[in-house]
Structures are given as C-alpha cells and as structure tokens.
Amino acid sequence: MANLDMSIQGLSKVDIACIEAAREYLPDRIPSNDELTTSGYESENPLRRLFDDENIFTEGGIGFLEGRETVLRLKFRILQLIADLFPESEIEESSLQVLGMGSFNIVVAVALQDKAQRRDSGIDFSARVSRFLRIPPRIRKFALRIPRDKKGDMNGPPVSDVAGDIATQRVISSCLGLLIPKIEKYDLGPRNALGRPYTLQTLLPGKNLHALWLELNPQQKASAIQQITQTVEKIAAVTTPAAGFISLSNLTSGSSAIALDQFNVPTDKEAKLRPHFAQPSQNPAPSQTPFGYLIDHCQRWQKYEEEIGRANRNKNMWRITIAVAKALDRRGWLGQCFHLTHGDLFPRNILAKITGPETVKITGIVDWDMACFAPKFVALRPPFWAWVGHSMDERDEDLATYEPPEGRFQTLKQAFRSAASEEFIIFGLSRESAIARKLFRVVNSGLLGDRRHLALQLAEEWNALYPEDKIGDLEAEWN
C-alpha cells in the first residue's frame, strides 16, 4: 500500500472510496494497552500524535511501521464517522490526537470547523467576511470515546457498559455544578463507521493533571490539592437513601430522584468462573442505612456461597466481617445515607491549567464510569497520592494515614488540611476510615477470591485499635 495520500481535509466521495478500498487490506487488531500506554508521570504522552503520518508510515511512505496498519484503519474509521455525523463541517486531520488509551476505552480528540468558515474557501461570502473582519473560524472540539473489548482490541463486545456510562454522566451533569464533559452524540450499536458503540463528548479545556504535575512548582501543586479537596466534598454532598450504581433507567425516567441498581452479588468476575450458578442481575437498590447495607450485602454473599456449595469455607470469616461493621456503626462511622463518589479520582481523570506563578485551576473531571453511591467513608477519600508519591499503590488505604517527613510532601498534606472541612479531615485521615474502606472492598467483592487476607487484616487492625470490641476473640475462634 505504497504512497497513500493522507492529505485529507474532510472526506469527499473519492476519499471514502479510497478508504473502503484500503480497509480490505488492513487488519482489525489494535495494539494492546500494555504495548502502548505509558507507566508513570511522563510530561508528554507518546501516544498523542499516534495518527501522524510519521508514526504510521516508514520513511518515504512506502510501507507501514510495525503494527501501524491498524492505526491507519482506526484513523479512517474515525474520519468517516465524523464526516457522517457532521456533513456540513470539515475535520482537520492534524486535530486527531490520542488523549488516552486505557483498559476500557480509547479517547481521541477531534476538532471541526464549518465549511463556510474555512479561510481557504475563497468563494464563500461568509469566509470572505470572516477574513475581512479578522474573525477566527468557529472551532468545535470533541472527545471521541471508543470502547475496547476484553482483549484490548476493537473486535469483540465492549468491556465497558456504554449505555450505563451515558446514564451516569447525564445524572451527574444534572446534580453537580462541576465542569464535566457533555455527551453530544452516541450510538449503542455497530451500525456506524466505527462498527461499534461510541460516545462523542465535548472536549474540556486544560491538560491532564497526570501530565501537568511535573511542570508545577510546590505552590501550584498545593493550589491543585486544595481545589481537588473542595471538589471531592462537592461530589460527596450529593446523597441518596440507597447504595449502588446509577441505573440505566434514569435515561427514560421522568422522576427527579436518582434511580440506583444494587451492587451485584455475585460480581461479574465471580459469575464468569461459575456460569452454571446465579449470574449478576440489575435490581433496584433498596432504601437502607449504610449499616443495613453492609449486613445485607454480607448475607447476600453467604446465600450465594451456600448455592455454590462453599458456605462452610467463609462462614466464620463473614462473622468477623459483620462484627467489624457493627463496631464501626456503634462508634459512629457509618452515617445514615450514601454519598456520591467518583470512584477513580486520580490525576489521570483531572484536567487543569496553570493560571499564575502560584496557582492552577481545575478545569474538569472526566471518566465517571466508576461513580457510585457509597458510605461517607468511601466518598471522603483524600488525595493521598499527592503526599505519598507516584510509586504508591493507589488501592492501599493505609497510605491515607501516612505522615510524610518535613518538605514538599508534608506541604501537600497540609494543603489538604487547609482546604478540607473538619469532617473530611476525620473521615479522610483516620485509621477507622481506612479500615472501613477496606471493609467496603471486602463486602463488595466477596471472600471467594483474594479478599480473605484483606478481611483478616482489617479485623486485626480493628482489634489493635479497640481490643474491648473483642474482634480478636472471633479471630481466635476462627483459627
């Protein structure tokens, strides 16, 4: 496929005919996430210019770089999709930039301008007036999210629930005064140029904080942490009387109340291991207190374990887990309602821009796929990644209680304290809340996998804090 002309400015019939012909020779597989994504706090994402010719073709344009036929194929599909969606606009080929390539989605930036406003049209009256008055052409910028399959490719069913993600984002947009992407267009089926579901969202201003972080001085980092802290509290201020994920039924419901689906028992992961037993089903989440939810969820797991013939293995471990839940409730850590949590609020999902020598501005929060309503101790999880360092395990709840030595990391933890409410400081930094967040993970995931060790660990930690609660007696009985 030598000397392919890639100077596409929008798509003519000839362009589309060439694309269709080229597709016959290009494979479907997209390089895996492990091959392409970056691993640390790099200031520049090497994938960003993935669609540029020099990253697809060998020198002279006589062949492909290894594996890049699939990149060209994806580029063709995106260009045709945008042409189908916006026939009166033109896409600048150079605007195609990879914003992210995670386990679930590929996210691509797209910029459009109206054909009538192109400066090179020459004969269009609007274009001549625009040039005369020096009015810049109107540019619309979008983020195209394309779901990947379980192999990281674009052939099989999407791993992510695209319809559920749309419902989640629309509900959150209606109840939060934060800058989050707006979904402009979407398709839940394969009958489009991509051949699979997608969402097209507004592209928010700013730079990914994961990439921006190394450019910031200590004062700017502290400014970012203060705003993130305030953002977490704004999100957590949205409450419901039930726990669970935002339901797809919100797309068609006329009610202002937020409908939720129960957290599943079994989880999708467990159900795949045992396809002949009960499978996950989306049931409306009942109104409960957080204590009632924890006990009920433990009992649902016990019932499932009885069904699969594993009841005796975890019977005493569930007793210990329930005992810790009761102890948390007695000491006032569970509250009476459930709070909205982003579920993945790390720098990779935060947009920001530098606004001064000592300040930055958070310009948006993206990727709400993991958002749910959970107990307060889950929602008020501090941004401890800032004072621990990028080599941390982001699932390690004990790091929230870590006291860094004097210096830049201590300054960032102090920035959190200065912006957080007293309640956030207590729920964010206490040993009790760290244990409670581990408990939530155990209860939601069950004890059939690798959570038995975590369950025993949190019980031992609670016993060390409050030996009078006699959790240790249950451990001794279990051993």
Question: What would you say this structure looks like, in words?
Answer:
By secondary structure, the protein is of the alpha+beta class. It folds into 2 domains: 191 residues, Phosphorylase Kinase, domain 1, CATH 3.30.200.20; 263 residues, no CATH class. 39% of the residues lie in helices and 14% in strands. Strands 1, 2, 3, 4, 5 and 6 form a 6-stranded antiparallel beta sheet that branches. Strand 2 and strand 3 form a beta hairpin. Helix 9 runs antiparallel to helix 10 and helix 14 crosses helix 15. The chain is globular. The N terminus is likely disordered.
Range of strand content: 5-15%
* Helical segment count: 17
The assigned structural class equals alpha+beta
Number of strands: 14
Globally, the shape reads: globular
Largest sheet: 6 strands, antiparallel
**Overall helicity:** 25-40%
Distance between the termini: 67 Å
Q: What is the CA-atom radius of gyration, in angstroms?
A: 25 Å
Spans of at least 5 consecutive residues with low confidence: 1-11, 22-44, 118-123
Mean pLDDT: 83
- What's the number of structural domains? 2
Architecture blueprint of SSEs:
Blueprint: H1 13-23, H2 33-36, H3 69-85, E1 89-91, E2 97-101, E3 105-114, H4 125-133, E4 139-147, H5 162-175, E5 183-187, E6 198-202, E7 207-208, H6 209-212, H7 218-236, E8 239-240, E9 245-246, E10 260-261, H8 268-273, H9 290-307, H10 311-330, E11 338-341, E12 350-356, E13 359-365, E14 372-374, H11 376-379, H12 385-388, H13 408-419, H14 422-429, H15 431-445, H16 452-465, H17 471-478
Antiparallel strand pairs: 1-3, 2-3, 3-4, 4-6, 5-6, 7-12, 8-11, 9-10, 11-14, 12-13
Helix pairs in contact: 1-3, 7-13, 9-10, 10-15, 10-16, 10-17, 14-15, 15-16
